[in-house]
Design a protein that fits this description.
Layout lengths: L8 H20 L1 E5 L3 H24 L30 H6 L5 H11 L7 E7 L3 H14 L2 E7 L14 H10 L9 E3 L12 H13 L3 E2 L5 H15 L6 E7 L3 H4 L2 H6 L3 E3 L12 H7 L4 E4 L2 H7 L19 E5 L1 H30 L4 H4 L1
Parallel strand pairs: 2-3, 2-6, 3-4, 4-5, 6-8
Antiparallel strand pairs: 1-9, 7-8
């Protein structure tokens, strides 16, 4: 009877083919698991994609151009390297990853994990430094039907919303006019050092005040940082309807009116902070006031951490499609099919080895007639 043998190349090839067939069958046997809050994430990502196009159109309408090297996907969310309202240096790579429309899905996840529901009031502190992150938050808040009270520091770091006629306040207004967003900043500050525009040229401060006026926000113009922080808190309280309370304070960036100092911004955990009020800060900002009232603080500062936590791509060329990726669904291989395929392959290998050893043992017991002579 003919038996398979490892010495026969045909059987080695057959084992290899069997392994490939079983591997293909295993990889083809999977199920798709939709992520938590899948529908909300999809809606927010597509909303951000639409909003980005609206801002891009407005940019062109105003006669601006897009630097295709710094903004390779031509989103219009990456600003200039310098302008009269540029307050500090910014990280271009962080600005770029937030132009991914799926960054809005990460914002949905954070807001839902903070137990926010439709109709909840949230205090929001923004700067012009990262319009992509701002837009992602707006898309998430709109999707979840939150009621934000927003104060924006208009000045921007490099590559942010630092075009004099297209500040973050202007972007908000354009989105509202196009029916994409239902809220804008009620109050605004100049931003920059001490939240007073220190370090900006006079024309830069004038351009920011002009942007606040044309977008009908109310200027918070204290004479010191502490005064501006107190005025911020008063503004948030004044705009909150009687009988309601804030369910969260949301901060994006390192606006000193919100965080108190750049050191604080770096020390505070990026994400949801539920016990921030228990910590002591030498230079507290508005967020510490809310934290002391047992209000959760959502701090969006370390963009790379969010990208890593939510497995968003660092390389955004070409532009990721909204609604695709592990934030929305994951593929899980069928464990039972994989186990069965593994068993079949191992059994086939063991069978060939067993037959091969049997033949060698049999041959070792055969006596060569010539040796007996």
């Amino acid at each position: 009877m003919f038996r398979p043998s490892l010495k026969n190349n045909n059987y080695l090839i057959a084992l290899a083919v069997l392994a490939l067939v079983l591997y293909y069958f295993t990889q083809s046997s999977y199920r798709v698991l939709t992520a938590q809050w899948h529908e909300e994430k999809q809606t927010a990502a597509h909303l951000m994609d639409t909003a980005t196009q609206i801002i891009k159109d407005e940019l062109y309408n105003q006669g601006y151009t897009i630097d295709k090297v710094n903004d390779p996907n031509e989103t219009g969310l990456i600003g200039a390297s310098v302008s009269s309202i540029t307050t500090s240096r910014g990280n271009l790579s962080e600005r770029l990853v937030t132009t991914n429309p799926n960054f809005a899905a990460a914002m949905v996840d954070l807001l839902k994990k903070a137990n926010l529901e439709a109709g909840d009031y949230v205090a929001v502190g923004l700067t012009g430094a990262n319009p992509g992150a701002n837009l992602a938050l707006f898309s998430a808040m709109e999707t979840l039907k939150l009621r934000p009270i927003i104060i924006t520091s208009v000045g921007s770091a490099t590559y942010g919303a630092n075009r004099e006629n297209l500040t973050w306040l202007d972007m908000e207004r354009v989105l509202e006019e196009n029916g994409v967003s239902s809220f804008v900043s009620a109050f605004a500050t100049i931003g920059g050092t001490n939240d007073l525009g220190r370090g900006l040229p006079p024309e830069g401060r004038e351009n920011i005040i002009a942007a606040i006026d044309r977008n009908q926000s109310e200027l918070i113009g204290g004479e010191t940082l502490d005064e501006n922080i107190e005025l911020r808190i008063q503004a948030y309280n004044a705009l909150l309807p009687e009988g309601r309370s804030y369910r969260a304070f949301i901060n994006i960036g390192a606006g000193v009116g919100n965080v108190g100092s750049l050191v604080n911004a770096k020390l505070i955990h990026t994400g949801i902070n539920r016990r921030l009020g228990e910590r002591s800060f030498k230079e507290p900002g508005a967020m510490m006031h809310f934290a002391q009232g047992n209000i959760p603080v959502i701090h969006i500062y370390n963009i790379n951490k969010i990208v890593s936590d939510y497995r968003l791509p660092n390389d955004i060329v070409p532009q990721p499609k909204p609604g695709e990726g592990s934030l929305f669904s994951t593929r899980i291989n069928n464990v039972y099919i994989a186990s069965l395929c593994w068993f079949i392959l191992v059994a086939a290998i063991i069978a060939v080895i067993a037959f091969d050893r049997h033949d060698r043992k049999f041959m070792s017991n055969v006596i060569d007639p010539d040796e007996e002579l």
